[in-house]
């Protein structure tokens, strides 16, 4: 049956629809144009850094030196440029939920250093008004798929965005942090499960880190163990 389906509907690249050898993947040309983050990167946000070697606690980018991060570690699968920008935008605004499968696979690979204490996985939440307008939370879709890839539990409503906030686009870093202050909380029904438990917090894109910081602070306030963050793409200066 699979051979028949493949003959009728051959596998194509998720970005350019060129024929490929496997489903939900990139063709060789798109793969080359996708800025996967490999090698040395910031241990707190995953942004690529010049040099070689494995990231460690002392490996921190300029942004993370200037801004106190409440989480313990962070990683990103892609740099937010070229197809590393097109992919999350297509997922978020183009209803390209088919991109969740390959994106989650890349993120699961990037998450390897963050899995030392069997974390639960939770997405950054959307306010219900924005969720109704968009119809899905892309971070929740990614979190669910990453949980399947890593065989880890996912709590999609661990966090709630209980206060509506204006869109963060075009706002400066300090404004973003101020806008999100107190807007996110832990869902009351999960407090017992959260106590002392490590959390892997998932989002699609990290720009300033304001949303991830507000989410981490909400988790820590209710007794979570170490929080680590994982994003599909990191907006950062070229190394």
TrEMBL record:
Domain Double zinc ribbon per the UniProt entry, residue ranges: 4-65
Domain of life: Bacteria
Family annotation (InterPro entries): ComF/GntX_DNA_util-trans, DZR_2, PRTase-like, PRTase_dom
SUPFAM superfamilies reported in the protein's UniProt record: PRTase-like
Limits of the Phosphoribosyltransferase domain: 152-235
One Pfam family cited in the UniProt record for this chain: Pribosyltran
Family: Belongs to the ComF/GntX family.
Name of the protein described by the UniProt record: ComF family protein
């Amino acid at each position: 049956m699979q051979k028949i389906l493949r003959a009728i509907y051959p596998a194509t690249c998720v970005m350019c629809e060129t024929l490929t050898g496997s489903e939900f993947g990139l063709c060789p040309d798109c793969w080359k144009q996708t800025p996967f983050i490999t090698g040395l990167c910031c241990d707190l946000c995953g942004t690529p850094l010049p040099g070689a070697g494995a990231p460690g606690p002392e490996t921190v980018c300029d942004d993370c030196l200037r801004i106190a991060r409440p989480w313990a570690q962070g990683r990103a699968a892609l740099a937010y440029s070229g197809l590393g920008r097109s992919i999350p935008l297509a997922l978020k605004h183009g209803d390209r939920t088919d991109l969740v499968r390959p994106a989650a696979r890349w993120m699961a690979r990037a998450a390897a250093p963050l899995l030392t204490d069997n974390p639960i996985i939770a997405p950054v939440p959307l306010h219900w008004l924005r969720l109704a307008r968009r119809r899905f939370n892309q971070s929740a879709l990614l979190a669910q798929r990453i949980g399947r890839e890593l065989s880890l539990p996912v709590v999609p409503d661990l966090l709630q965005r209980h206060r509506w906030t204006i869109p963060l686009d075009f706002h400066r870093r300090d404004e973003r942090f101020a806008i999100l202050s107190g807007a996110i909380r832990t869902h009351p029904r999960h407090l017992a499960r959260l106590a002392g438990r490590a959390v892997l917090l998932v989002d699609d894109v990290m720009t300033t880190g304001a949303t991830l910081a507000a989410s981490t602070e909400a988790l820590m306030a209710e007794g979570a163990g170490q929080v680590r963050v994982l994003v599909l793409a990191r907006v950062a200066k070229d190394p």
